[in-house]
UniProtKB/TrEMBL annotation:
Name the UniProt record assigns to this protein: Triokinase/FMN cyclase
Keyword Protein biosynthesis annotated: no
Family according to the record: Belongs to the dihydroxyacetone kinase (DAK) family.
Reaction(s) the record says it catalyses: D-glyceraldehyde + ATP = D-glyceraldehyde 3-phosphate + ADP + H(+); dihydroxyacetone + ATP = dihydroxyacetone phosphate + ADP + H(+); FAD = riboflavin cyclic-4',5'-phosphate + AMP + H(+)
Residues in DhaL domain copies: 191-335
Function: Catalyzes both the phosphorylation of dihydroxyacetone and of glyceraldehyde, and the splitting of ribonucleoside diphosphate-X compounds among which FAD is the best substrate. Represses IFIH1-mediated cellular antiviral response.
Record organism: Geodia barretti (Barrett's horny sponge)
Length: 335
């Protein structure tokens, strides 16, 4: 079953059909054959739901795919030709989630890539194969086909890890993703730090467009949006963090930053790396020396990364230089 957002293109010819910008077609053929229906654009999870419902429904009188809880299947997610890798992987993840969580089947193998394509056709197709030991052996067989994307998943199913709440991932005592109980800090300084972080988040959110505008001069113009995404996520979890435990707060912030901020600032390295390294120090809210040590550890971690990647070093080095190059950062942070 396929879903397409645009027609295929034959060089020198006009498209054989058109789709509006807010429209998608379910079941469209690889050569532009008419599909089952046209609907409004929807997010990936809803699109996958529509596709699998069409594949598994039995009320139309034609052959359908019957799923049995616990059965083992292989999933192929094909790029129709004009879909980015990012979009393809989003659809792959959504398809796996629906199969495992809703249809209760074990996705033993996943094949995702450009298998059969049409020029400039934006969309994906999903293929399910009911597995037998013989078919599984064929899928895993060696091949010289250069375009065959081999991706193997454990026999226990496609979900090799469980998604957990960022605040909970570093401590057994932290709240789970479903735990919304507030944790009121027992110390005055813990409450002060929570207020400070909340105010920083508010300031960053209010200045989203200003930061984006500044970033357009030397980047892709998303600095403010990235900061807002991270700040919003942190604000939502402020009340359940353990503000009496500085190290746990830093690790909680790492998880939130990695999960909600993109680019080099968040998911790739900088803030998460800085906070993780800082959390290795024995931090106390009221001990300025311990904070200096933590900050120094964070800066050292980023500096090591920048020396490893010269491309980042040229653009980000100014952020890490002390006010006077003759004095190390430790002097300033201790002050």
């Amino acid at each position: 079953m396929s879903v397409s957002l645009s027609p295929c293109s034959v060089p020198g010819l006009k498209p054989s059909f058109t789709l509006r910008e807010d429209e998608m077609e379910l079941g469209l053929g690889i050569h532009g054959e008419a599909g089952a229906e046209r609907t409004k654009l929807q997010e990936a999870n809803e699109v996958v739901k529509l596709m699998f419902k069409q594949m598994t429904r039995s009320d139309l009188g034609y052959q359908y795919f019957e799923t049995i809880p616990g059965m083992e299947v292989a999933l192929a997610v094909n790029n129709l030709g004009g879909t980015s890798n990012l979009e393809l992987l989003i659809m792959t993840n959504a398809a796996i989630r629906y199969l495992v969580d809703e249809l209760k089947v074990a996705v033993v193998r996943v094949i995702s890539g450009s298998l059969i394509t049409s020029l400039e056709m934006a969309g994906v197709s999903l293929t399910l194969l009911r597995l037998t030991p013989e078919l599984l052996a064929y899928l895993d067989a060696e091949t010289l086909a250069p375009g065959w994307p081999r991706a193997t998943v454990g026999r226990g199913g496609s979900r090799t890890r469980l998604d957990s709440d960022p605040v909970a991932c570093h401590s057994d005592s932290s709240p789970t993703a479903h735990d919304t109980r507030d944790k009121e800090p027992s110390t005055t300084i813990g409450r002060m730090m929570r207020s400070c972080v909340a105010e920083v988040c508010e300031v960053l959110i209010r200045n989203e467009e200003r930061l984006n505008d500044l970033d357009r001069g030397s980047g892709d113009g998303d600095c403010g949006s990235t900061m807002t995404a991270g700040s919003t996520a942190i604000k939502e979890r402020l009340s359940v963090m353990d503000w009496d435990n500085p190290r746990q707060v830093l690790l909680s912030l790492v998880g939130l930053v990695e999960s909600n901020m993109g680019g080099t600032s968040g998911a790739v390295s900088l803030y998460s790396l800085f906070l993780t390294a800082g959390a290795t120090a024995d931090v106390s809210w009221s001990d300025s020396v311990s904070w200096a040590t933590a900050m120094h550890a964070g800066l050292q971690a980023i500096t090591r990364l920048m020396h490893w990647d010269q491309q980042w070093m040229s653009s980000d080095e100014a952020c890490l230089l002390p006010p006077t190059h003759r004095r190390p950062w430790r002097c300033y942070t201790q002050q």
